[in-house]
C-alpha cells in the first residue's frame, strides 16, 4: 500500500452503534425458574410492543413501561423476560393496541432517542417477539409449539423438539479507495437521494470475509481487499445481526450496479460526506446519509472524521 493509501485505512466506528447499547443482565439462569417467573413478575416492568414494532416513548426520551402487575399476578400469556437490573425485571409483551395516532415509535424513529438501558430493552423486545410470531409451528413435524424458558425457547407439542430464537447474520461493508473517496449505493425502494454502504446476507458455508467480497462484487461489480472487522449491531427487521466491515478497492474499476437491486452507485469524496453529516438529513450533492440509528451511519461518520 502506498503512503496515500494509508489515509483512512485505520478508521473505526465513531461511536458504538445505537442499537448495540444495553445494560440489563439477561440472567440466563432465571429462565428455568421453578415458579414460572412469578416472583420476578411482581417487581417487573413491561415493554408493550404493537404489531408494527412500536412502543410508547415518553417526552423525556424513555420507554413508557407499565408495572407488570397491571397485567395480573403472574406472567401474562406471551410475556418474555428481557433481563434484570437492580432487582427490577424487564419483560416484553405483544399488544393488539394500534399506536398509529398516539406517538408510538419503532426502533428506526425512536431508537436514537433512548438511553443505553432502554435501547437494549426495546431492541431485544422487538426481535424476540417477532421470532415468537413466526415460530408457532414446528419445522420438523408441523405441530404447534409453546413458549418455554420465559420466552427464550419454544417447545414442540408433537415431537418435543426445542427451538431457540433465530438470528440471521448479514455483513455491511464500507468500501473506500484508501484515500478520500467512499463507495456508496442506493436501492430503488429507498427515499430520494438516500445512499448507504453495501450489505448482504451470509450464505451457508461462507465466511464473513468471503461474504463481504462476494456481496461487493455482486452489487457493484468491484473487487475489494484488505477486509477488516469494525463492529456489529442487532437489526431486528425482522431478525438480522449486522456485522460491519471495511475494505479497500480501486476507483479505476467500472461500477456495475446489480440490475433491480442497486439503482445507482458512486464514489463520493470525503468533503461531501462531511457536509452531509452537517446537513441534518438533507441531501448534499444528491447524497442523503442513512439515519443515525443505523450502523451504516456510524461507519460512514467514523471514516469521514478519522484523522491519520
Automatic annotation (TrEMBL):
- A Gene Ontology MF term for this entry? hydrolase activity
The catalysed reaction is:
a 5'-end NAD(+)-phospho-ribonucleoside in mRNA + H2O = a 5'-end phospho-adenosine-phospho-ribonucleoside in mRNA + beta-nicotinamide D-ribonucleotide + 2 H(+)
- Tell me which PROSITE patterns the record gives: NUDIX, NUDIX_BOX
Q: Which residues form a coiled coil?
A: none
One Pfam family name is NUDIX
What InterPro entries does this protein map onto? NAD-cap_RNA_hydrolase_NudC (IPR050241), NADH_PPase-like_N (IPR015375), NudC-like_C (IPR049734), NUDIX_hydrolase-like_dom_sf (IPR015797), NUDIX_hydrolase_CS (IPR020084), NUDIX_hydrolase_dom (IPR000086), Znr_NADH_PPase (IPR015376)
Q: What is its EC number?
A: 3.6.1.22
The cofactor(s) it depends on are:
Zn(2+); Mg(2+)
Which family, according to the similarity comment? Belongs to the Nudix hydrolase family. NudC subfamily.
Instruction: Specify the protein name.
Output: NAD(+) diphosphatase
Amino acid at each position: 500500500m502506498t503512503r496515500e493509501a494509508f489515509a483512512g485505512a485505520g478508521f473505526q466506528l465513531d461511536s458504538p452503534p445505537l442499537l448495540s447499547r444495553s445494560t440489563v443482565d439477561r440472567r440466563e439462569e432465571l429462565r428455568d425458574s421453578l415458579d414460572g417467573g412469578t416472583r420476578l413478575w411482581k417487581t417487573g416492568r413491561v415493554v408493550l410492543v404493537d404489531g408494527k414494532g412500536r412502543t410508547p416513548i415518553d417526552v423525556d426520551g424513555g420507554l413508557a413501561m407499565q408495572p407488570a402487575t397491571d397485567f395480573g399476578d403472574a406472567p401474562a400469556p406471551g410475556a418474555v423476560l428481557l433481563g434484570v437490573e437492580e432487582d427490577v425485571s424487564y419483560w416484553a409483551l405483544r399488544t393488539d393496541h394500534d399506536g398509529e395516532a398516539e406517538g408510538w415509535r419503532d426502533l428506526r424513529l425512536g431508537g436514537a432517542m433512548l438511553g443505553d438501558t432502554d435501547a437494549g430493552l426495546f431492541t431485544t423486545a422487538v426481535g424476540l417477539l417477532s421470532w415468537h410470531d413466526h415460530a408457532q409451528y414446528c419445522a420438523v413435524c408441523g405441530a404447534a409449539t409453546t413458549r418455554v424458558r420465559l420466552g427464550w425457547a419454544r417447545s414442540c407439542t408433537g415431537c418435543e423438539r426445542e427451538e431457540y430464537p433465530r438470528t440471521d447474520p448479514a455483513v455491511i461493508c464500507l468500501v473506500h479507495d484508501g484515500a478520500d473517496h467512499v463507495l456508496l449505493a442506493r436501492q430503488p425502494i429507498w427515499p430520494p437521494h438516500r445512499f448507504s454502504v453495501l450489505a448482504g446476507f451470509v450464505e451457508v458455508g461462507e465466511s464473513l470475509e468471503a461474504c463481504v467480497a462476494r456481496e461487493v462484487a455482486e452489487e457493484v461489480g468491484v473487487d475489494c481487499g484488505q477486509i477488516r472487522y469494525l463492529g456489529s449491531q442487532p437489526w431486528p427487521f425482522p431478525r438480522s445481526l449486522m456485522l460491519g466491515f471495511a475494505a479497500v478497492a480501486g476507483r479505476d474499476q467500472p461500477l456495475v450496479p446489480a440490475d433491480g437491486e442497486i439503482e445507482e452507485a458512486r464514489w463520493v469524496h470525503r468533503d461531501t460526506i462531511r457536509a452531509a453529516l452537517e446537513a441534518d438529513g438533507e441531501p448534499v450533492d444528491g447524497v442523503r446519509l442513512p439515519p443515525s440509528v443505523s450502523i451504516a451511519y456510524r461507519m460512514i461518520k467514523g471514516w469521514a472524521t478519522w484523522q491519520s
